Amino acid sequence: MGFRKGSEGPSFFDLFSQQAANLVSGAALLASILDASAQERVALRDHLHEIEHQGDEINHRIAQLVNQTFVTPFDREDLGAVASCLDDCMDFIDEAGDLIVMYGIENIPASVHSLVAEQIDIIARCADQTAHNIPALKSPLDLRDFWVELNRLENEGDLTYRRALTATFDSGADPITIIKLKDLVEVLEEATDAFENLASRIETIAVKES
Fold it and tell me: Which protein family is it in (predicted)?
C-alpha cells in the first residue's frame, strides 16, 4: 500500500482519510458479495480481505506515528482510539463478507434478504459519511453534524437488526440456516455499533478541544 507522501510523510489526518476510504470500498464489496454467485463471492471476499489488510497496515502506521511524533494534534490516546475505531469498522465488514462465503449462505428467504441488504446499506451510508467528514477532523468542533448523523444511522441500524432477527426466526428455514443467518445479522449490527463508537470518540475529542 502506498501512502501519500508530503515533505515529512503522511499526517494523521491523511492516514485516517485512507482508512475511511477503505471503509467505502469494503462496504461496496460486502453488498456485492451478498448478491453474487458462489463462484464470484470467493474472489470478492478475497478482495475484501486485501482491503482489510491494508487497513491493518494503516493502523500500524498510525501507531508508529503516534510514538514518533513529539507534538501530536490531539491526545495520543485519542489518536490511537480513532484509528482503532476505524479499524474495528473495517474488521466487522470483513467478517460479514467472510461469513457469507464460509457459511455458504444462499437462497436467503426474501424477507430476510431485504433486511440484511438494508443493514449493509446503513453500513455503506456510515462509511460514506465517515469518508466525507474524517478529512475535517483537524477541526473536530465542526463535525457535530457528523457524529449526530452516525448516531442516527446506528439507531436506524438497531431497528433493522431487530426486524432482521425476527424475520430470520419467522422464515421457516431449517435450524442450521437460521443459525447462519443470525450470525450474519449480528455481525452486521456490530459493524454499525463500531461506527457509533467512532462517533462517540470524535465527540469526546471535540469536547476536549472546546
Answer: Belongs to the UPF0111 family.
